[in-house]
Amino acid sequence: MQTKIFRFLRQFGFYCRLPEMRTFWIILFLIAAVATINFVFLKGIEALIVLGILLVVGSVVFAGNLRLARSNWEVKVERNQLQDIIENLKDGLIVYDPDFKIQIFNKAAEAIFGISMKEIVGQYFNPNFVQNPKYQLLAQVVFPSLAPMIRRLSEPDVWPQIVELSFDNLSLRVITNRVDDPGGRLLGFFKIIQNRTREKELLRSKSEFITVAAHQLRTPLTGINWALEILEKESDLKPEQKQMIGESHVSAQRLIKIVNDLLDVSKIEEGKFGYQMENVNLVEFLADIMASASLVAKEFGVKLYFDRPAGPIIVKIDPQKLSLAVNNFLDNAIKYNIENGEVVVKIEKFSDKPFVQVGIKDTGVGIPAEEIKKLFARFYRGSNVMKFNTTGSGLGLFITKNIIRRHGGEIWAESTLGRGSAFYFTLPTDPKLIPPAEVFYEEE
């Protein structure tokens, strides 16, 4: 109890010393002077009435000034805390009003642009600054259309705007958002600038290493695969020898598949997967893929069904790349299904939307709810598929996601544990919605 009283008195004394309380102390002095004069010249009830009025006025002024002092101090503390947070952000932060007057420019931004806060805060920025070598980089970030190489990661009219800008020896991701008041009136914008140069260099080095290693592995593996394939056809082999060679052949093919997946991931990360788009009838395209997958489905005792729409559906795709994506879906749906299970592929076209939706549903083991968000990450395999006698690199769905996104589509999964899973993806029916260039879609 004493501690609380002591703390209260200490805070009270602190607030009483703040500048906002000066008015009260001046008024208190005047009240004391008036009260003294009052008792000299007035007698009895009149003196008490005047004294009461003075005490009320003094109390009101004291309470108001104390409240103001406390409020201003709390605002000052919050402002200082916010300033500390802004200054210690590892990413650059620029805030400007609708007239492009720079209001905030933190230390990380100073390091990226080589400009001090004192030089730039308060200036009205415009595209002409790009002609000044000192401000050229900043102008290209504030006005991304001026940058030599830009890659948009968000829709043009959707906030926040996310772009990647590439310069000589510098790679930046810029996230721009607008600031509105409660009534929707524009107050300004803020930009978060992430310097991804080091990250890109590490990614490039890793991709180069994987590419070289995978190429070095693929050549001998191909030779081993051919040798085992020839040996498998020999008629003079004993049954146990034939079985051993057959198992070795399957293992060699799995290794080749993993190596090819690694090479595909490296190409995707570098934006060099090489898409060749053409108009294709999606219905016939999926029918052909399912016909090829029927042999594997029969081997696993799974039935394939195609909910085929009436009439053709023309979309612009890379047949080879999209075939890889669909085969990844079907491969998982078949291998992780139950005996006598089913896989249903369905196409839906929407009259009011510029895309077509494809769904692949199975009656398999399902996916735990907490793992669904991880499905499209590199090297991820579900915790409940380990009991199946199947192998995989954990790269298939990661590759598939990037293929679908490159086609301008979206991809997602739904599942009920023990009852099956459903994977969906969309493809635009309007070619204008297909991204103009390859983009590496990182794990979310």
UniProtKB/TrEMBL annotation:
The keyword Membrane applies. This is histidine kinase. CDD domains: HATPase, HisKA, PAS. It is an enzyme of class 2 (transferase). The chain crosses the membrane at residues 21-41, 47-66. Residues 212-431 form the Histidine kinase domain. The keyword ATP-binding does not apply. GO terms for molecular function: phosphorelay sensor kinase activity. PROSITE patterns: HIS_KIN, PAS. Its EC number is 2.7.13.3. Residues 78-123 form the PAS domain.
